[in-house]
Amino acid sequence: SAGITNPNYQSNSVHYTPPNRIKQLQGQVDEVTDVMRNNIRLELERGGALDALEQKSDILNEGARSFSIRSKQLKKKYWWKNLR
């Protein structure tokens, strides 16, 4: 046969794949697709949570900055008041 003597020979015949094997492969593809969809959903949720956390962090940072400014003002006020 040509396949035995020529290592580059490729058969043009179509190989039969049993229906149960096709179902099994389709099930695996569906499973991987579901996992990837779930991963995408979780990543989108995580991204939203990170955005909310960043906003809260910005608000907290602004509050800390305001507190620092106000506490320095009060310190100066009472320093002058005690000086008199």
TrEMBL record:
Residue ranges constituting the V-SNARE coiled-coil homology domain according to the UniProt record: 21-81
Pfam families: Synaptobrevin
Keywords assigned by UniProt, alphabetized: Coiled coil
GO biological process, one term: vesicle-mediated transport
Domain of life according to the entry: Eukaryota
GO cellular component, one term: membrane
Name used for this protein in its record: V-SNARE coiled-coil homology domain-containing protein
The organism of origin for this protein: Adineta steineri
